[in-house]
């Protein structure tokens, strides 16, 4: 399900592209007072700490609210380093597309031509590099096998594997050994296995460690100062927040996972960055400074991602997705690891960026029937802050025929909502703890 949410608010804001209410960045300037109020609202809705950066042309806003460390009372600040989860996928996709521009990677060539030992047989001949990039490969995600207690509805394996070093081939094996989800190219399913495989394709065609390659060709080229792969080091270098995981109430009180060996994320989700660096990166990318125009156009060629009703909730390209805002489509990615959530989006022309990090994950609760999550005021506050950041001080609200925003406002006013959340002992089988964009333990 697409409800295992650290950042579920984004999905309900997507849909068919809305016409822009603005010209290209015309008359839009960061309203610092209202943006700070938006961050305060996220914290007041229950998130421990939140830190953010907004850019519009040459103008910038950097703000924070709440606590970086609950035990000491240390305040959050805007430039804290942070694990950004699956925002890493955009960086990995850019490195693959750079190699495509050099003629070393053919996006429509079978993956088995590059790494036959990792994706053997008929599947290796059917799955293309492009299918890995846009999650149409049908290859299963590895998260459940890498953290096996999650499949049983408990969280012990999060602690058991805090200091584990795991190799890419083992992660890929978990995903590949599972049954194919669908015929390659016929459907869409988010899978971190795809992006660890892409890292190994990069290793094969360049002869370099993929994380070092991405550092050299993407991170340094974009001029990022605080973005890096931690390798096997479980500690984050420099100033950072503690990162608290609630897992929908299974971990109560929320536990600090800021010390963690991130080899389980690798080229799918291990990066450390800051909101300021993420804004610089997406501005450079969408402004055409990192990829040739042909490769950037391919990156923005998308497949529709639909919910269970058939409504389009996002459009996923090659490591980059598009969702709708009140002022038109925005491009970027979100990310989440245990205790840390991130959202980074940009206007289509690269003129305006928004990035936010926060340090309490999976704070939502199930309804009494255990079938869905109760709307949480922090989700609505995050969406409102996003719209204010990207669309300016007069951002109109998007039509909401399904009444989702009204339900969230009701939840924000009553907190908790009219439907009482049920306490969790284990996750119900109908809600497997597996990832998807805007959902799951690694996004």
Topology:
Blueprint: H1 9-12, H2 32-44, E1 49-56, E2 59-69, E3 74-75, E4 82-83, H3 88-101, H4 121-126, H5 129-133, H6 143-146, H7 156-160, H8 168-177, H9 192-206, H10 210-219, E5 244-245, E6 255-256, H11 266-269, E7 272-273, H12 275-286, H13 293-299, E8 303-306, E9 312-316, E10 321-325, E11 328-337, E12 340-347, E13 352-358, E14 360-361, H14 377-391, H15 404-414
Parallel strand pairs: 5-14
Antiparallel strand pairs: 1-2, 1-13, 2-3, 4-7, 5-6, 8-9, 9-10, 10-11, 11-12, 12-13
Q: How would you describe this structure to a colleague?
A:
The chain has 443 residues and is an alpha+beta fold. Helices cover 30% and strands 16% of the residues. It is built from 15 helices and 14 strands. The chain has helices at 9-12, 32-44, 88-101, 121-126, 129-133, 143-146, 156-160, 168-177, 192-206, 210-219, 266-269, 275-286, 293-299, 377-391, 404-414; strands at residues 49-56, 59-69, 74-75, 82-83, 244-245, 255-256, 272-273, 303-306, 312-316, 321-325, 328-337, 340-347, 352-358, 360-361. It has a nine-stranded antiparallel beta sheet, sandwiched between helices. Strands 6-5-14 form a three-stranded mixed beta sheet, with no helix packed on it. Strand 2 (59-69) and strand 3 form a beta hairpin. The radius of gyration is 20 Å and the shape is globular. Mean pLDDT is 86; it is low at 1-27, 394-418, 429-437 and 439-443.
